[in-house]
Amino acid sequence: MASPKIDPTLKNAAPGASDGGSLYAETVMIHPRTVKGTFRTWKWAAMALLLAVYHLGPFLRWDRGPGAPNQAILADMTGRRGYFFFLEIWPQEVYYITGLLFIAAIALFFMSSLAGRVWCGFFCFQTVYTDLFMLVERLVVGDRSKRMALDRAPWSAAKFGKKAVINLVWLAISASCGIGFTLFFGNAPSMLVDILTGNEDVGVYSAIAVVGGCCFLLAGYAREQVCLYMCPYSRFQSAMFDEHSLIVGYEEWRGEPRKPARKGEGFENRGHCIDCKMCVTACPTGIDIRDGIQMGCIGCALCIDACNSMMDRYKLPRGLITWDSIANQAARAEGRQGKLRLVRSRTIIYAVIMSLVGGLIVFSLASRKTTELNVIHERSPLYVQMSDGAIRNGYVLKVLNMVREDRTFILEVGGIDGARVSVVGGESNVAAATLKVSPDAIGAYNVFVNAPLASLQGKRTPLVFTLRETSEGGITRVESLFAAPDK
Amino acid sequence: MATIEKDSVSGQNTTGHEWDGIKELNTPLPKWWVYVFWASVIWAIGYWVLYPSWPTQNGYLKGTLGYSSRGELANDLELQKKGRSAWLSKIEASDTAAIEKDKDLLRYAMAGGKIAFNENCAPCHGSGGVGVVGAYPTLADDEWLWGGALADIEQTIQYGVRSAHKDTRASEMPKFGADGLLKNEQIAAVADYVVTLASKAPAKGSAGETVYAENCAVCHAEDGAGQAALGAPALNNQIWLFKGGKDSVKDLVVAQVTKPKHGAMPAWVDRLDPSTIKMLAVYVHNLGGGK
């Protein structure tokens, strides 16, 4: 995909604006025109939904019993637990997060192959916050032409005042963005009070400063530069598309040759594009969609709304700029009716991968045990001969109690006749030892197993640790080895 | 020389550079990117001033903040020490038996004892008290030369074995062979007897038994159980400190009776503080063989 092609005659031409031989491009602030239409409505709805989830999410409660956090969505870094409604993730289960991220990546590809850059245009936080910041500018200054005029105007008290108001509101939004982020890492209601009263940890304020500062700079000033120069996704989007992907596109066969509309003249023997540049001025990244699919297009579809409003005014059919596949556009250019092809090998593969990984996650969550036993065989000494000739091996047993109540386990060993168990700080030389583990904790025990030489098979004898929960009787088995001198 | 022209395919300008007919497109770098670059350079200069940076002839520029990673470590250690003091004072106030009874103190002592053990004891006794065959005793089994109770272990660590300390544990086995106390036949006979003693089937009425009863039993006990107070090892089991992998028990006993080898261990009371010694004793006691 070529770099965005810009009509240099336009004021808001941004990247790569051809200004002769300079190797450096001036950044021109883009002030898109406000449009009304279907996609604009969807964008407002998406923004409202996402901001609501982001800011209200941490305040949702979920009862987990006494002593446990009651926040529905919580990343407890000090307690090393992740909470998501009914789920509680331990650090060693971080692969669930890996699975989610994997699904997210494939979902992005899936979305792109189906319907282009919907993520970029509607759901990306860069898009959402840029849109919100532009709304602030519009409410304070006015629409595109007024904003551009204000930028051009010499500095005055009025200009300074307006700019100050804009920046202050931006700062407030950025601060709430930063605060909202940190609230996912602590008890939101009390943490919010602590943050606002200055009683929080310096680390929390640094996190707010970093997230909020990025929000302010990226949504306030960097804007489309983020999409064009920083985001890797725009660079490989072309690999996700094919001719059946729905993309925002200009129907060149119908629009060209473009010509300004004149009163009294009809639209015979010319294209339907009246070259009003509404699509260009409405574009938040400052590109001309009529140049074809390009990297700078984030698929927000605002140009469609802009163009449709003009088509309505001139009583021309809508859809000169459409959200449709390249194949359908080509079909219409030839006078045929195109066909939507959502089911293609590409989308099937993505859907299969997503459902496989998703199914795997759901399955492993559903069959998740509340007890886990890790057995680490002591390697120094590998084994010890006792004075009565018996051989002893040492093990470290880690019993993970993933339930929020005290639990008692009975530990037995199997596979070796006459094997006896001793627990450091507990019973010694017993057939079955009792291990107590605190709620939601890992109990670590040094365990010795003694076995008579006669029942051993030489260097290595399989040994099975069996852990039986006393109240509900759940059984956890772990196979290990018992080392001994060679026979 | 540089003629800038518009590329017909991409619509972009060229830089005017041309090599063998290949022209370079001009994709201008955004100016803000250049500003960020220079801001980073300035940041780096500030960094040089504030933090240790360039090497000099005899050292390095220390930076105005006086930061060093060593200093940071020292601070961390200081904090760590403060965090430990509560535990350490508890350990100081309790005896080893009390430490072992308290679950949390035991865990703390095991962790602290392990570190102290690896630093001070492991060079001879091996990590985990595995010992060295033929040289240093295993601390993980249930045979103890000088006693395996907590107090015994603590005393051994404090004063050592045949060490320079005045309270050291010490004993010496006579050189029965070298000093001519026993004849070679007698030594061979007693060695044969000890072999039978070790396999728990002592040869009653043998010549060796008489030699044993007259010379050895006073320290190693009639049944070969040994005597911890004298550091006399038990002879009625299969654990032999000075037995190399391939030696036979008889050869070992003959050699030891003829000209005994004695182990030695330094006293730690002047090198380690009492809390560390307590933690070490608890750790060794829990390596598996403690009595």
Quick structural gist:
The complex is a heterodimer of chains A (487) and B (291). By secondary structure, chain A is α+β, with helices and mostly antiparallel strands.
Describe the protein.
The complex is a heterodimer of chains A (487) and B (291). By secondary structure, chain A is α+β, with helices and mostly antiparallel strands. Chain A has helices at 38-56, 95-115, 118-123, 125-140, 144-152, 157-182, 188-196, 202-222, 224-230, 233-236, 252-255, 278-282, 302-313, 326-333, 345-366, and strands spanning 24-25, 73-76, 81-84, 87-89, 246-250, 321-325, 371-377, 384-385, 391-401, 407-414, 420-423, 432-437, 441-451, 460-469, 475-483. Among the domains of chain A are: 38-232, no CATH class; 371-483, Immunoglobulins (Immunoglobulin-like, Sandwich). In chain A, strands 7, 8, 9, 11 and 13 form a 5-stranded antiparallel beta sheet that branches. In chain A, strand 2 (73-76) and strand 3 (81-84) form a beta hairpin. The radius of gyration of chain A is 32 Å and the shape is elongated. In chain A, 31% of the residues are buried. In chain B, helix 4 crosses helix 10 (274-285) and helix 6 packs across helix 10. In chain B, strand 1 (14-19) and strand 2 (22-25) form a beta hairpin. Chain B has 3 domains: 1-67, no CATH class; 70-167 and 265-285, Cytochrome Bc1 Complex, Chain D, domain 2; 184-258, Orthogonal Bundle (Cytochrome Bc1 Complex, Chain D, domain 2). Chain B is mostly helical and 291 residues long. Chain A binds chain B through residues 2-3, 5, 15-18, 20-27, 222, 225, 229, 378-382, 384-389, 392, 394, 422, 424-425, 446, 448, and chain B through 2, 4, 6, 10-13, 15-16, 26-34, 100, 103, 106-107, 110, 126-131, 138, 140-143, 234, 237-239, 286, 288-289. Strand 1 (24-25) of chain A pairs parallel with strand 3 (29-30) of chain B, so a sheet runs across the interface.
